[in-house]
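Holo prediction — zinc ion.
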Amino acid sequence: MNYILFGPPGAGKGTQAKKIVEKFSIVHLSTGDMFREAKKSDKTISALMESGKLISDEIVVDMVRKRLQKDDVKKGFLLDGFPRTLNQAQALDAMLKAENIKLDAVFFIDIAHEDAVKRIAGRRVCSCGASYHIHFLAPKNADKCDLCNSQLIQRADDKEETVKERLKVYDAQTKPLIEYYKKSGIMVDIDGARDEKEVFEQIAAKIEA
Ligand code: ADP
Ligand code: ADP
Ligand code: ZN
């Protein structure tokens, strides 16, 4: 069971990914999470992320290639936030072919830009990896994580100007992947505007089918 989740920033990829990997016991590979870790010690990555720009294909592809060589991915994986450019998609196809790994589906979670802006504006995250929304998925105690009680924070790249830039980057560089994966015949359209549970049910039903 090997899957890709893609869609605009704020579509709910991270939220759904956590539920999917738990239910189906596969590995969550989030390039965004990997770079949030890397940016602590790498100023170039930090600057790119905080301006809403993408990290170079070379760096991303290299990182994913190394990650896919680890043993745990054999039980199945869910790529979240990768690929994000046509170059990355082609590089991934080549890597998978070389390792004789098959993709089962590409879930395209789509929402309108105005909804993406609302979701990102209310997103609050915890250093433990948990993610909330101040209105749509509110923590039990305001600004505290349900799982570890730490103070929730707003991601540095979730500021309004950066969000606009990320949506532009998505339109220019990531949207062409829709056609690419449509042609491959494994793309599944998911209506991301529904509530969290309904989105999960759409995805889980496809995986179980
Ligand atoms: P979102 O939750 O908004 O979809 P992510 O957490 O996936 O965002 O990514 C955050 C940032 O990390 C991106 O804006 C980009 O700078 C960098 N990044 C993550 N994945 C990739 C990728 N596949 N290619 C290039 N940059 C990436
Ligand atoms: P992505 O990883 O695609 O950038 P996230 O999963 O982080 O998106 O979700 C963005 C924000 O929207 C978070 O604050 C999350 O709690 C909230 N969210 C996720 N899914 C839904 C949904 N179906 N309805 C409303 N809010 C959602
Ligand atoms: Zn926490």
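READOUT: DSSP finds nine helices and seven strands in the chain.
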